[in-house]
Design brief:
Blueprint (H helix, E strand, L loop, with lengths): L2 H12 L7 H8 L3 H12 L3 H19 L4 H7 L5 H12 L3 H24 L1
Helix pairs in contact: 1-2, 2-3, 4-7
């Protein structure tokens, strides 16, 4: 992978709780904004904006499944300014709203644990 794309990825991952502008990334690798956008898409298959959105949503899904933070706290924590926008974006990506995702993953985890416990008893 191109070292400049690796640098861009490092910056994006270090600041995954907020959007990083193309110009900021361009300065980090000393290329124009249009050049880094082209290079990033060529190397990753995603635009910078798509990468940032996917990273945020993946982090949100992890937090919904494993933390006790509210949906609102998670929304703000992963960089969304408005919970309604977060909910719409999350639903578009995962097919269900964040609250239902949380409920289903917790039920699934509980069922898996029960399955393991009963299998251990046999």
């Amino acid at each position: 992978m191109d070292r400049r794309v690796v640098t861009i990825l490092q910056v994006l991952l270090d600041r995954s709780d907020r959007s990083v502008g193309v110009e900021t990334l361009a300065r980090a690798v000393r290329l124009s904004g249009s050049r880094i956008q082209h290079l990033f898409k060529k190397e990753t298959g995603l635009t910078i904006k798509q990468f940032q959105a996917e990273r945020r949503l993946t982090r949100a899904a992890y937090l919904l499944e494993r933390s006790r933070l509210s949906v609102k706290e998670i929304s703000y924590g992963v960089g969304f300014r408005h919970i309604a926008h977060f909910s719409r974006t999350f639903k578009k990506r995962f097919g269900i709203c964040p609250a239902i995702f949380r409920s289903l993953t917790r039920v699934a985890a509980h069922v898996d644990k029960d399955d393991c416990d009963s299998a251990a008893d046999n």
